[in-house]
User: What shape does this take?
Amino acid sequence: MATDGSIIEKESDVSCLNPYMTETRKRLVIASFWVVVLLGLPLWWKTTAVYRAQLPFAQIDSWVDRKACQLTFPSTFVVHLASIADADPKAHNHPLDYPTIENAIAASVDQQIYQANTQQCVEFPLNIEIKEWRITSDIIDLLKHTSEQREKSTIGRYDIFLAPQLPAPTSTKRAHVKLGNDRSMIITLREWTTSDIEESTAAAIATLLQEERERVQSIACDNELRERSNLDGLRTMKFSPMYQMTFSLMNEDPSGLQVDWDIEDAVNTYLRPFMSEVSVISNFSVDSQIQHFAQLAVTPQYMERQKLPSYYYLTPETLPHFINSAEWNLASAISTYPTINFILYIPAQNKSPLRIHNSKGQPVRSNAFLIPRWGGIVIKNQPKALTASGALAFGKEDLKPFMEIFVAQLRTLIGIHDLKKIMSPLETSHEISYESAPQTAVTVTELDAVIKQRIAENIVNSIATLKSLAQLVMDIPNMVVLDHIRTEVEISLDSLEQACQALQQQDYMKALTHSISAIERSEKAFFDPTMVSMLYFPDEHKYAIYMPLFVPVSVPMIMAVVKEFKEARRRRKEAKSKTD
Amino acid sequence: MEKSLFILLLAFILRLWLFNLPAIANTLATRVEVVTPITSFKRLTEGLYLYQHSVPPYDGGIFHQPPFLLVLFNAISTLPSSVIPIVYAAVDTYIGYLLTIITYDKQRIYEKFPTLQVEKGKKDIDPWTVAALYLFNPLTIASCVSKSTILFTNLSIVLSLAYALKGKTIHSMLWIALASYLSCYPAMLMPPMVLITYNWAPHQLSLGKQVQVSAMYFVSSLAMLLIASYILTGSWDYLYSTYGTILCLTDLTPNIGMFWYFFIEMFDQFRNFFLVVFQLHAFIFAAPLCIRFREHPIFVVIVLSGIMSIFKSYPSIGDAALYLGLLPVHGEIFKYTRYGFLIANLFLYSATLAPIFWHLWIYAGSGNANFFYAITLVYNLGQVLLLIDVVYAMLRRSFDIANPQALGKEVIQR
Assistant: This one.
């Protein structure tokens, strides 16, 4: 309706004004937009659907509650009792009653160990068998003889050989215990009586198992116990199937000294046997480096002495700051495995000789120290008589003392406990001797203890990881859980099951393999890039994502539809009034 | 005639001359504004090398162009290397020539249409002016000299339009199928092409019949092309590598479109959803425009080309060159446009600042991605304004022809 002639309003019936815009066409245009929107709706549903693979929560819970499988660390002791045909006639008079002795030993061991721990989340079944051991008095080397007597031993199965002391007793102690390398010990008793046999055997078994059991129990049972557990646990590296070992030769001041070392040869000679021995638990990759201008982060103190030469020293309080992590390039990008560092540090001339004091203020003889869960350091002062060229080259032989220290430190870092230390409680009543360890720097018994400990650790840690994963998934309902996560979790649970069953059958090697698989799989699932909680947000945040685009777009589209409806209604009314 | 020859020759020689300036040709071939991952000649060479050495070219994630281009350039590569610039220059010049034919045909058809009083007795735009506007548009030249393969898509679209105006349904559908095959989006130009043949072809079919016949031709030629490609490469891998890249935006190399920045910032969870939204958005205008401008299907082709150039996933200035070249075909609406000055400034502004901000971001390091993205927004704002303006001009002119009494008066919708 033209009001003043300058403005033309389009009539509702536009066709009279505009031949191209009929009412049907207008509706078609609006409809064609809406058709696309409606087409988009199922796509919207499809593309924003959160895919959640069903995780076996019930199974995880049963592991967390320890209902799925009872952890057991069984051990078997085969006690070989000597029956001497021609020596001591007294022994013949009193034939030994084997079943009674078996029970007596078992009861005695239980009494000695179990009084310490009351918790029953781990079981330690003890199986004692007694066998007859026929020897003759002309056997000198018992040790050699024993190896022929036994079946092939496995982890958790020990052989104890008992015999009266055949030559005249030399010691005042009532028995002599000789520990072999291969899960065997020989106890020679001064007096061949039933009570002595029982007591000595039980004491030896109890001492051997005591610490190992305590450690496994503290790992497997609740966390409070673990936290107050001994320092060893804190020193030991977190388990990994692979470690990266880095040997660094640090030279503080290369201006006066050129250094070099034959580390490859030394590692191959002194370390390789050890590494191959522990490879059942973890493998190692070894690399080395020489760094110059490795400045110390701490300033050593000066000790002036009147008659003796003066020296510089570091106190135990300053040792944690010894590593100059800002400047020493120790972080490795080669692999994602945990790194164990070993450093041979050569201080500058003006700080030599540098020594380490212990907490009592006395210099430490080895001049070495260990950084828990990190590595070991040895300080080597420059020799006084340097060659004219100012060069210091460590050959294989020169490196031997340092490698010995490194091996000892590595033993601690991967959780090997000294057998001598374990057995020391027995020394009060028994005389102990050890068969010399082979070149590997680790005895079979020591390794067994580590394996058991690692099995317990892996099982407990993978249960904890799975528990956290289940917690995370349940807490965030919007989190996408892909199929491969479920697969990993299922494999991990399966491995746990198998590890536990293998333990019950006393097959520790199998249990170790499965426990490693369990921890690896569970961590793989937990650290998957899609399982990051930051990626997912609650529903109300979604509105903030949708609204900025869709509200402005939808306003004109909805308005057009509303207008069209009004128009249609008005027209119907008009038509009605016309017919009326 | 002399004028026409002069224009074509000059355009051809200009291109050849620019091809011979390595500084310009090589620079243009790497500019993100000019070439995209799906049109880059460098990537085509890469794919061609693999193809010639019997390595599946679509495996590496570098090459995203359809197999026909491989075959074409495989053939060209047997000729001396100077042939490639000649091919590009010739194709571009040919597009210019086709534009004159399109303009002739359009003017012949529109003669019968009612016009405004002021237009009576005045001559329409000279077809050779249309060609010159295309051939000497800096965007066209830059795109051609960069050896961007978008040129072949543009050629197919223009050929399809020319054939449609001649009333040749089969040819038109074949060429638009080829264009769709080359870069996916031109599929939305198929309905207006059908409308052109339906509206103006000498043999009159009913609309339903025409749609059926055309759809059949379109689908069968497309299927033929796809199957032939399968035979040429020996596997269906190329489908995901070409159309998958276009539709799923797997390559986030910056360009002058809206997609890359948005999908770099996008939360992974919503990526698929917004991909669907963005791609649907590009296609949503096809039907309404065809319905609204049923009588002016050439205009629909122009506007849809513009929409492609703005909302496709990997736009380049080659897309803009196409619809800017087609726009003068409907020269009569220019007198209604209102934002000419503003739009020209927006184009100049973004043309100046885009390379600068790119340099600041990538080379100098003193800027960041926001700088460059802001400029692409300005550029796209310019394009959107231009489209709004021409659509307005078209509507107003039609309205004024139908209602001469409304001339010069404001029209409001109640």
Observations:
- Chain A has a mean pLDDT of 80.
- The longest helix of chain A spans residues 539-579.
- Residues 241-413 of chain A form one domain.
- Chain A touches chain B through 33 residues (CB under 8 Å).
